[in-house]
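quick q for whoever's on today - can somebody do inverse folding on this one?? i tried earlier but teh output was garbage lol. tokens:
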């Protein structure tokens, strides 16, 4: 939480369910001084043992474990953007499809009540409903999950969404909210999101119809392009390129253009391309997590490719000079995408993407052919595009250049939104000047 920047001082706290009760952080101990003895056991009668008092907010944790059987971990914090929205008593609406990752069509803000009281627990549970994340008015946010990793992921994702939403609002215009029936589809999709096939449980017909569509899998032959599955001694082909994809992902984290596991990267290799696997955190990626796909759209190996493999695939099929693709949901590009706005020629560097504007592709459901089609339309002859209510994508002649352009697009989006936040629209460069720029960028 400290590393992610979602905790402020000692205001955050975390817990997990154990046999007979749960473990929660002690009151007022700075995280960097915590030892296992500072983690307090509480039983489900609300009694604690040991010499340290639990966090003054133990009651919210306790009431989640009592009321939500599937909750096995809770994360509570006062991160900047969630707390700012909570002070406005605002929900996070469906301005981005990732809102569905919290289990509903909106993330609700619980009514204000004094911290540590039963009244706060009650208003928190009302705000949750069947969702796993909520804001707490004039206070912060809280979420739960099936384990600490997933609860932490959701806390960070909630803060990312709050930041994107506030950034969009800073332009003075409200973001476009996705329709109800699209969010129904998203809720179905999130049952299968970020999961490898072995992790999928029973799905309803509607959920199966909208499941993340995995491409066909080919058996890896010894020394074949996929190679290197469990029990296979053959060396991984394209090892150098696999490492370069991982390096690019880690650089996305360092640059702050990736949020959670929402970004993905790929590069063209002989006979196809290499793309990041679905739902594997970048810092845990090994070369075996980089999936080979051929240009027939089949993958090999034991990991499923990113749920967004189709955009990569369609770029390699349609754009001969594209040799690398970077996709992410960085804050400012995502905020503009939620406003369905292009980046105009307010700065000459817009021409670095190969055109006089950077276009925003029309909204389509992630992972679908419709999204690939609208992305290709938005590209035209350009190398970077926004994706409505989603994020950005770009390609280049190699991973370094694609990463550079992804970061440059986010810098331009940030500069443009910062100019809009003054209340006046920035001056746009004339067409003939942008023609000169396009010539210069060759
Ligand atoms: Zn608090
Ligand atoms: Zn995406």
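ok took a stab at it. sequence:
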């Amino acid at each position: 939480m400290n590393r992610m920047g979602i905790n402020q001082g000692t205001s955050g706290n975390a817990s997990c369910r154990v046999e007979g009760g749960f473990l929660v952080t002690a009151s007022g101990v700075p995280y960097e001084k915590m030892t296992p003895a500072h983690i307090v056991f509480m039983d489900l009668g609300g009694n604690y043992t040991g010499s340290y008092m639990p966090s003054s907010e133990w009651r919210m944790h306790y009431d989640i474990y009592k009321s939500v059987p599937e909750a096995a971990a809770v994360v509570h914090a006062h991160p900047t953007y969630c707390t700012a929205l909570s002070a406005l008593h605002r929900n996070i609406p469906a301005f981005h499809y990732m809102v569905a990752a919290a289990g509903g069509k909106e993330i609700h803000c619980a009514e204000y009540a004094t911290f540590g009281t039963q009244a706060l627990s009650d208003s928190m549970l009302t705000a949750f409903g069947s969702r796993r994340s909520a804001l707490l008015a004039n206070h912060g946010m809280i979420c739960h999950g099936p384990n600490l990793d997933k609860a932490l992921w959701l806390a960070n994702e909630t803060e990312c969404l709050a930041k994107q939403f506030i950034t969009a609002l800073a332009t003075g215009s409200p973001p476009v909210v996705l329709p109800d029936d699209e969010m129904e589809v998203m809720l179905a999709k999130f049952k299968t999101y970020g999961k490898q096939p072995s992790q999928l449980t029973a799905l309803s017909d509607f959920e199966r119809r909208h499941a993340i569509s995995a491409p066909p899998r080919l058996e890896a032959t010894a020394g074949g392009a996929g190679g290197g599955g469990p029990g296979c001694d053959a060396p991984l082909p394209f090892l150098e390129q696999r490492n370069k994809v991982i390096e690019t992902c880690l650089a996305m984290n360092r640059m702050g253009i990736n949020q959670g596991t929402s970004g993905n990267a790929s590069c063209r290799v002989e006979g196809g391309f290499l793309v990041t696997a679905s739902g594997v955190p970048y810092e845990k990626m090994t070369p075996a997590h980089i999936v080979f796909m051929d240009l027939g759209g089949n993958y090999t190996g034991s990991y499923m490719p990113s749920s967004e493999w189709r955009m990569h695939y369609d770029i390699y099929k349609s754009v001969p000079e594209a040799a690398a693709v970077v996709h992410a949901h960085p804050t400012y590009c995502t905020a503009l995408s939620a406003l369905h706005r292009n980046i105009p020629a307010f700065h000459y560097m817009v021409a670095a993407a190969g055109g006089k504007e950077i276009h925003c592709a029309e909204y389509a459901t992630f992972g679908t052919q419709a999204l690939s089609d609208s992305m290709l339309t938005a590209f035209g002859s350009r190398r970077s595009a926004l994706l409505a209510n989603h994020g950005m994508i770009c390609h280049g002649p190699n991973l370094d250049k694609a990463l550079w352009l992804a970061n440059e697009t986010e810098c331009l989006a940030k500069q443009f939104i910062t100019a809009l936040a003054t209340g006046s629209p920035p001056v746009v460069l004339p067409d003939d000047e942008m023609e000169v720029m396009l010539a210069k960028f060759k």
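fwiw Residues 148-169 form the longest helix (22 residues). also Residues 213-441 form a domain with the L-fuculose-1-phosphate Aldolase fold (CATH 3.40.225.10). so keep that in mind when u check it
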